[in-house]
Specification:
mainly alpha, Urease accessory protein UreF, 10 helices, about 65% helix, globular
């Protein structure tokens, strides 16, 4: 098949919520925010995710993902792991990263990853190795992050499938804009101001009962 078609199919597989990396088991701290009644409506979820992908962990991951086309992956991974704001965030990123590396190797045949690798770097490295267009990969990566978070809200608030789709629809322009910014961003542009989300991820370690691992 044509190269572009092959790469698009790879991207659709790798960023699909059905890709077997266990992303459905992680809430990125959102479960705690819902338990604290900070997220009750679709508007709350939209605002929460907008902040995460423009000035929080979602933004940082997007920049790290994008730099995999230019920078040394080992150094990027060290930075990505150091940026984990809590034990749960670290575990989420490394577990997803390891599982992504193993699953993506079905296509890449580069061998199972050694050591712990952050999900953003594992996914970015795979897309870069496969020659996938960086812009398309970034959009798919951010879309996948938001879709996974909306899925948490749909199940826990509960938000409802239709309202969840409306959140994703409304986030689409911001996802595209953030992907464009991340593509031209340098590592010095990494930083966050979503302290509430970080604290929620820390508090989630002791939340009982809970459904999600983070």
């Amino acid at each position: 098949m044509p190269t572009e078609t092959s790469q698009l199919l790879l991207l659709l597989n790798w960023m699909s919520p059905t890709f077997p990396i266990g992303a459905f088991a992680y809430s990125h701290g959102m479960e705690q925010a819902i338990a604290d009644e900070r997220l009750k409506t679709a508007e709350d979820v939209n605002s929460w995710l907008s902040d995460l992908i423009t000035q929080g962990s979602g933004w940082n991951d997007a920049v790290l993902f994008a730099r995999c086309w230019q920078d040394d992956v080992a150094e990027l991974n060290e930075l990505a792991l150091a940026l984990s704001s809590s034990a749960e965030r670290y575990n989420e990123s490394t577990h997803l990263g390891r599982n992504f590396g193993i699953a993506a190797d079905v296509w890449l045949n580069t061998g199972k990853p050694e050591g712990e690798m952050a999900y953003s770097v594992a996914a970015g490295r795979a897309c870069a190795k496969a020659g996938i267009d960086q812009t398309q990969a970034l959009i798919a990566f951010l879309q996948g992050f938001c879709a996974a978070q909306v899925s948490v809200a749909v199940r826990l608030i509960p938000l409802g499938q239709t309202r969840g789709l409306e959140v994703l629809r409304d986030l689409a322009p911001l996802i595209a804009e953030t992907a464009t910014r991340a593509q031209s961003a340098a590592l010095d542009d990494i930083g966050g101001a979503c302290i509430g989300a970080d604290i929620a991820a820390m508090k989630h370690e002791t939340l009982e009962p809970r459904i999600f691992r983070t």
